[in-house]
Structures are given as structure tokens and as C-alpha cells.
Amino acid sequence: MVISGVGRKSGFIVIAATVKIAECMYMARKIVMVAFPDAQMLDVTGPLEVFSSSSRILERQGTADAYTVELVADEAGPLPMSSGIQLVATRAIADCTDSIDTLIVAGGRGVWAAIENESMVDDIRRLAARARRVASVCTGAFLLAQAGLLEERRATTHWASCATLADRFPAIDVEQDSIYVRDGDVYTSAGVTAGMDLALALVEEDHGRDLALLCARWLVKFLKRPGGQSQFSAILHQQQAERVPLRDLQHWLVSNMAADLSVPVLAQRVGMSQRNFARAFAKEVGQTPGRYVESMRIEAARRKLEDTALTVDQVATTCGFGSAETMRRAFWRRVRVSPAAYRARFSTQH
User: Fold this and answer.
1) Residues labelled catalytic
2) Domains of the chain (ranges plus CATH)?
């Protein structure tokens, strides 16, 4: 990546960057990112960094085509992000007349004003018709929807906006839990960092799994998550108890999945009667202790199936299921696939 300008203007950091690929054997794929005032900065820079990092890797190898990246907006020039930092749009979207490989639309709190900008929506529709594929990050899905690009398609967005997307555009089949969704040549991703997962998937689609994993490792990205995974882990999704003893118990459970986590044992740990404990836990957490423990064990098992070479029996034991059959039944109830099928789809141990 070549930095073409770094400076300060009105108290903001201004960054303009382009990727130059000089020694690749083939024509580079052009990535055009569309942003707007008050876009989420990581929606923009996260995916573009994936593509530019892949370009640098391929440039060193000199064996394949790579990518160029460009940031465009309604007008060229400084573009304030929701964080207060400014990026520089190198061109107005209306001036984009050359060929595009991948058109990506960012999201962020400014999207609600952007979808009312008819000229921008028209330009997105125009560019999408010329691009090989179209994608959105986070609430950028609303701009694609406004442009009519998600009609009768499966799509996703930030988990907090899925219901709004479904209500506002009922012709879209909104998948609330997916990290990203592909429907034909249109891709949508969940919130913020999920845009990097989508970008890595596009790199894998273009250049293979090895480059995508190498790029993820280069960016010190913990896991290149496949698109079918949940947007958020059960640990993040669960409601936190108000009472300190119950909240402490929730934290303790994460590291003690293999222990006896029956109601009598948990009630004793927090110094409550079984009846009061079960009632208080369900009221504050939103589900019974048994269902909560099962969801935590499934979460732990999912991670081990993804990231380790432990057998299914070993995973069942270390996560407190007792047997592989018990874990299999729990997976079918909650995940709708068997542990073996889940591993086959999501394991990183290849």
C-alpha cells in the first residue's frame, strides 16, 4: 500500500491510500468501496486492508493477479467517519465509469441519511450492474436494498438491524445469525469486523484457501470464520444477571464446562436454595439454568470442533456432555446439525 497523503485538517487525521501492483502477471481486480459521511471506519478499512494485504503477498510471489482498491463517495475529498477520523475519497461515485470487479458498500450510522440520497442510490445501482459481484458490510445492506439489489435474495446485516431490514424490505430473506451471506453474485456481511471475514472469503474465492489463511495470519486475525457461523457467540449473546453472585457464576461457568453443573450444585455455589436460585436465575438471565448451561457447553464444543483436532468423544467429555450421543442430541436441538457435520464445515484444522 502506498500512502499518497497523510496530514491533519480541522483536527482530523486525513489518510489517502492506493494500492499499486507493478509486477503481477495479470490485470489486477479492482475493488471499489462506497462510503458516506458518518460511515463506520472499520467497515471501510477492514475489508480494504484484507485485499491490499493479499495484493502484497501475491506481489511478492509474482504468480497471480491481485487487487487495487479505491474509496469513493458522493463527492471526492475528505470524508468524515463516525469515529471523527477522515478518510479521503479519491473520486465521486458518479465519476466511476471504468470496469469494476467488486463493488462494496460500507455501513455505519450515516447510512440512514445515505439511503435518502437518491443520486447515490442510483449510482450504486448503476455500478452494480457493471460489477462482477456486489457486497455490503454491516448496515450497508440497507443501501443495496434501497437500490433494489436484494429483492428476493437472502441477506444479512448487523444483528441489531436485522429486524429493521426485514420490516423495511419484506422481499428480502434476512438471515439474522450469519457472518456473511452469498446469494448469487451479491454478498452481504454482518456487523463491522464481519466485513473482513467476507473479504477473506472473497480472496479465497479468487485465489484459494491458502492465500486467505495466510492473509488472515498476516493480519493476526484469530479465525477466518465461514459464512454459516453465528454473528455472535452464545457467551456474548446471553443476558447478564444483575445480582453479583449470579453474574460471577456466569463468568465461572465459562471455565468449568466439564464440572457438575446441576441446579443443586450451582445453587449451593451461590448460597441459595434450589428453588430460589432457579427462579432468580431464570428471571435475570432469561432462561433456566439448565438451558443456559447447555448453550454454554454447545458454545465451548463449537470452538473445540473448529479449532482443535480432539475427537468428538473427547470434545463431549471436556465440555461436560458426558457422552458423544448426549452432545449430538444437544447439537441437533440447538444447531440443527450433528457435531461431525459442524466440524466438516467449520474446522480450521485442514
Assistant:
1) 138
2) 2-218 (3.40.50.880), 234-346 (1.10.10.60)
